[in-house]
Amino acid sequence: MSNIYGEWLKAQREGAGLTQQELANRAIMTRSHISHIEAGRRIPSREDARRLDRALNTGDVLSTFLPGGDEIAIADYFEPVRQLQQQATMIREFSFSLVPGLLQTERYARAILGSAFPPVSGEERDRRVVARVGRSELLQDPVTPILWVLLDEAALRRPAGGAEVIAEQIEHIATLTEAGRIRTHVMPLGSDVYPLMHSSLTLMSFEDQPPCAYTEGHIFGKLHDSPSVVERLQNAYDLTLGDALPQEDSLALMRAIAKDHETS
């Protein structure tokens, strides 16, 4: 991923004779956030870009040429979000129709990626499966990141890949939940409409940089850095979580659904 923006920011900062901390003080930001922007790991919000312009006397260059504005459109790759997940101390996932990628088993991922349109070659599907399943390596650390998962029951009822595949997938989630590695809540089918039904959502929190969010629909995804947008999405997640089943009830429901699939 090109980092022309971050490299230009660094050149302007160094040209002004400022350290990252000095620029952070002037722009009312953290030094680590400046560091992540310069390295291409984060995109500043539009307000942050305006403060950087004022701090560096660069007119409106940084805010005008902000890549994608406050929201970066991501159509064919997940790399920026994958990098952020590796830095996150806490991840909160919501999915309405599918199991989130971080939790997908190989057979489930193969079934999901095999439904792509236009179709892809077997070699390309294999490559995508390896990349997706590889993301679960994040969970090999027993503590970090903290992972909360909020699933609509519809994602568990849909027999993606067949009854055996979805039953195995549900068992994988239940095992991680019972082991205490993740926290899982299910929104039952009998629930009324709720704020998160329109797209999947990933919320990411960090030790030394502002939180961000990622939403994804049918074709496009958006990475949200704007504080006001992230806060709105966090509130929608909290509201939905409040109406979901408690974890023990969610586990019981997952086991029952897996059994239904196994006997179907």
Automatic annotation (TrEMBL):
<protein>
    <submittedName>
        <fullName>Helix-turn-helix transcriptional regulator</fullName>
    </submittedName>
</protein>
<dbReference type="Pfam" id="PF13560">
    <property type="entry name" value="HTH_31"/>
</dbReference>
<dbReference type="InterPro" id="IPR001387">
    <property type="entry name" value="Cro/C1-type_HTH"/>
</dbReference>
<feature type="domain" description="HTH cro/C1-type">
    <location>
        <begin position="9"/>
        <end position="62"/>
    </location>
</feature>
<dbReference type="InterPro" id="IPR043917">
    <property type="entry name" value="DUF5753"/>
</dbReference>
<dbReference type="Pfam" id="PF19054">
    <property type="entry name" value="DUF5753"/>
</dbReference>
<dbReference type="InterPro" id="IPR010982">
    <property type="entry name" value="Lambda_DNA-bd_dom_sf"/>
</dbReference>
